[in-house]
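Weekly structure sync, notes
Attendees: PL (lead), two postdocs, one rotation student
Agenda item 3: pending single-chain targets
PL asked that the sequence for the first pending target be pasted directly into the notes so everyone works from the same version. It is reproduced below exactly as submitted, 1097 residues in total.
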Amino acid sequence: SSLEAIGRALSRRNHGRSRAVVMATDHDEAVKGLRAVAEGKQSPLVYSSDGPVTNGPVWVLAGFGAQHRKMGKALYLRDDVFAEWINKVDSLVQDELGYSIVELILDDEQDYGIETTQVTIFAIQIALGEVLRHHGARPAAVIGQSLGEAAAAYFAGGLSLADATRTICARSHLMGEGEAMLFGEYIRLMALVEYSAEEIATVFSDFPDLEVCVFAAPSQTVIGGPPAQVDAIIERCEAEGKFARKFQTKGASHTTQMDPLLGELAAELQGIAPGPLTIGYFSTVHEGGYIRPGETIHDVDYWKKGLRHSVYFTQGIRHAVDNGHTTFVELAPNPVALMQVGLTTAAAGLHDGQLIPTLARKQDEVDSMVAAMAQLYVYGHDLDMRTLFTRASGPDDYADIPPTRFKRKEHWLNARFSADGSALLPGTHVAMPDGRHVWEYAPDGPTDLAALVKAAAVQVLPDATLTASEQRALPEDSARLVTTLTRHPGGASVQVHARIGESFTLVYDAIVSRSGTQSALPSAIAAGVAVAMPTITEAEPEPADDADILHDNLAAGAGVAASLGKWSPDSGETVHDRLGLIVGSAMGYEPEDLPWEVPLIELGLDSLMAVRIKNRVEYDFDMPPIQLTAVRDANLYAVEQLIIYAIEHRDEVAELHERQKGMTAEEIAAEQARLMAGEIPPELTEKLAAKHPEAHPEAHPENPLPPPPTNPAGPGADSPAAAAAKVLTQDAVVEALGSDVPPREASERVTFATWAIVTGKSPGGIFNPLPAIDDDTAAKIAARLSERVEGTITVEQVRAAATIEELAGRGGEFLEAGELDGFVRTLRAREPGSDKVPVFVFHPAGGSTVVYEPLLKRLPPDTPMYGFERVDGSIEERAAQYVPKLLEIGGNGPFVLVGWSLGGVLAYASAIGLSRAGADVAFVGLIDAVRAAEEIPQTKAEIRARWDRYALFAQRTFNVEIPEIPYEHLESLDDAGQVQFILDAVKQSGVDIPGGIIEHQRTSYLDNRAIDTAKIEPYDGHVTLYMADRYHDDAIMFEPRYATRKPDGGWGEFVSDLEVVPIGGEHIQAIDEPYIAKVGAHLSEALSRVESRVRDQ
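Predicted structure, written out during the meeting:
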């Protein structure tokens, strides 16, 4: 069937809450898009949403600055509805001004002036809105900005089309004539400066003749006035590291310069007939307030005030958000207001708003309109998809598509009634005489205690923010919850008690603060841990809950929500499927490539991967923390078994966690085996018997969950110098340890997994000799490998390969074609013809840039990303290798550089190198690249202390006894010699540590030693530090100086313009959900600002 026949048939189907639209021009694209929908993956071909939004869309009509040559031309020539309405406005404009806007639109060389810009944009806005209405779209409310007020008045019913056209013609003609007469001292300029309304009021004390033209966004204001003062405020703004841009005008609208025009404007508009509004109207003329349907506002005085006084755009958008609107559609030939809309919605706490452009410069106008309507449809707004297809002439014009499969599922309501308000969150409220507030809540199931605290606090403090919390116990389902709030100058403290009869048990402690109040604690802390909160610049005063963060998604036009969230037994997703996604994402496997019967250690599990898997499993499955450091050889089936047990026996697992805090690794593993109603593995029985001869537990054939030994190296922890890299090659590791070396990169992982899946046996290591196989098995391996690497692998090549490494080399050229070029990994390529600004990321200590995939999913879906992998040398030497490649890929910029852990230090050093090369560095983001609070000494005493700590770390993490360390000999060696000496000692001792862990520890140690010896140089650009609450325990054990953090993360003395964004969690969690969502939202806003600046240049 043709795509049109398929689309025509589907457009007439009924739909549920979830919707998806595939944008395809041929069958191959359609198949790719549909597969992405089925697999829940993001794709530039797909718009999707799992549920309709609550309120209808707000149509945004701004305009000035959106003008460009050929605007509206393609749509005029190809869309009959658009052309019809352009022609209607054109006839009215010819009556008013005597020229044709159709001729302007069709003139490819047209340079629009003050008058023609306003009139043509108005006509395009009218036509765009009518195209949307033709296809069934309807606005719930409108908001106009400056010239956009005329079209907004028309769509809201405030003016007829004739009166709206008359208004814009009179306004634009007077402004055009006025500007043409300006010269010398009468010229006034306009500029956008990065100051908030409060800041601009203070700054204006030094510039008495400047005025506010537009309150554009919470941190952006358009000002106007004499050229000298405009230039001076721009210079001041840029000196402070803020953004500023001068407009190409000779006059300043919305200032006193407009006073001479007001009389003529009033005369020109005599006789207009304003009518009652038919929809809601957020008036940027009346301070952004909401005007209800039925009111009449668009009289002559309204238009005089709109020309003369400030435009309250950000206030209007904020009121729209406060009224529950989340979808904003900009009607313009190029989106100029959506960036300010996005900044305002984010500041209002709406991070997953749907920001939809209609047309965009250098993009196909018909495709852009279809994309806008597709997004409206998937978010549940009114739109008749049938109208996007030509009318059918008969049954053959509809494709024969199978019916929707019915899923049998019960939907009975479990209703409960109460005579009082205790059944509604936060419960029945009583104000106490001593100033405290108390609520009693009767839940009918498990309760989100953070949500309970928030709901209670906002009843007393409307702008309350949950700042810190600690769960003391788990309340029983039958217990009533009593919340007590005690106010103090900074906010309030809140306690939640579980009440059973007359007995009360404290289950939750929390601190809430007023918006804008600096908190003394991070957003989430562990029991007994206090961490200082940063005091530099807070990008968002309210830290979101993990569950809220997971659903954050700043929609930069596309707005495809990330399909993330906690696992639920009612979701239809199995534990098996979710676990496969988690492990595959952390270890670099596709879920279908994971051999579940092979121990994770053999698949390449290192400590960083293990901790990421542990954190994500505990979060996704809402499991109590489990000590897992004693077991590391189980396969995924054993992991799945433990998760299922933990889900079904949460109380027992929680009690186990408390008991395990004082246990040894062997005792922990034994306890977990007992918990799962089985026997203790024989090897643990032997170890326990050696330590406790009286204990003789029974053996069990099943292995428990593999360990998550945490990465000892944070972004500043001790690690070896670059020279050691030449000594510690993979061959040296293999020779010293005699270990099976697990897969190290994508082609080896696919090959290893394919061999294990087809043969049913692990190949052991990538350098191990492969056993003989028959022709049938070789054919199956060749077929699966060919499919997985998207290339041809022959049976002869499989039979000829002596090792997994050799066989992986056959498929590597296909698998990594275009993915890895030298040390540059393409995580998402730039689309042909795209002008999207790429993000450059740098590898963390001991890891690869694959770890940034969660961040990539949180950015706009067409954002390119390139990863810079490990090279040898000091930080400065590595940056010197990176900078030429950055310039080769990104030209002169703008550059957006981001890094986690060591990657942050590499991004910082590369930014300095690029700046010295004259490139435009627009953004530097450090993801918890926090320096130690005090200098790490490089002394002989510190060498001894460092290796003592490492020995303890290795014993706890790997269950091995490190040979006695000869300190005197180590002190005589450099870093490379020390590492070589330790390798030799391990070799002689016979200690057997899996190769994957050794490889990770080796590179982590080297990378972090490079940080310790780096010379941090000053940087005069803007740097954003995304700061977690603390380092993980292993990093602190390895280097205790990381236990304390400076409020500026140790960067304040080097960076002149430092912004600190608290994200919560531990360092090791910062790169994963839910915390990476906060980084993604902030970075998406930064990208939007950078791309807007590029477009305006």
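Discussion points:
- The two ends are 46 Å apart (CA to CA).
- The mean pLDDT is 78.
Action: rotation student to compare against the earlier draft before next sync.
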